[in-house]
Amino acid sequence: MKPVIPIGTEYFGKLRENNYYFVDKTTFLSEFFRGHADVTLITRPRRFGKTLLLSMTQQFLDIEDAEEHRKLFEGLQVMDDPVAMAEQGTRPVIFLTMKNMEWDDWEGMQKNIASEFAYLYSRFKYLLQDEMDAGDRTAFPGDGNLQPVVGQQLLQ
After folding, report:
1. What is this structure's pTM?
2. I need a surface site. Which of 18, 80, 91, 116 has the fewest CB within 10 A?
3. Sign, CA torsion 23/29/31/36
4. What span, in angstroms and rounded, lies between the C-alpha atoms of 47 and 10?
5. What count of Cα atoms within 13 Å lies in the side-chain half-sphere of residue 33?
6. Which ranges of the chain does DSSP label H, i.e. alpha helix?
């Protein structure tokens, strides 16, 4: 099947599964794992592929469906990098985008974001069973009461 040029596709898996044209940006992953910055800031103008880049990173690192995701990277440059490939599928990844969130006022925005965090909290609650230090236990009490954490601390 001849590759198609995608328009507005921001999901890495969809690009690869549907044989869309794709400029291989996986060298970003190699550079990311070799860098030693505490924070990585990704700045690009609107419509320059930030969400796609983060979707690619999420699918590369995510421990969920790691073997399925590995297939998405076949034939791409990152597969030739043993340092990066050692990281593939090794972490739980929280992917949060506010791209499609809409609200009319401050309270609506807070409720929307709190709802998104509550969903993410419930999805990754299994991580509370892993060993955590005292600071993590304070931030994520595991008692099912997310409202104080999201509603007061995270949105201030």
Report:
1. 0.74
2. 80
3. positive
4. 10
5. 17
6. 12-17, 27-34, 50-61, 66-72, 82-85, 106-123, 134-139, 147
Q: Are 57 and 42 in contact (CB under 8 A)?
A: no
pLDDT tens per residue across span 88-105:
999 999 988 887 788 899
Residues 6+ apart with CB under 8 A from 142: 125, 128
pLDDT band with cut points at 50, 70 and 90 for residue 150? very low
Contact 108, 102 (CB under 8 A): no
Token pair belonging to 143:
């008692």
User: CA 77 to CA 22: how far, in whole Å?
Assistant: 12
Residue, of 108 and 47, whose pLDDT is higher: 108
Q: 130 has which bridge partners?
A: none
Per-residue pLDDT reduced to its tens digit, 22-50: 889 999 999 988 887 888 888 888 878 88
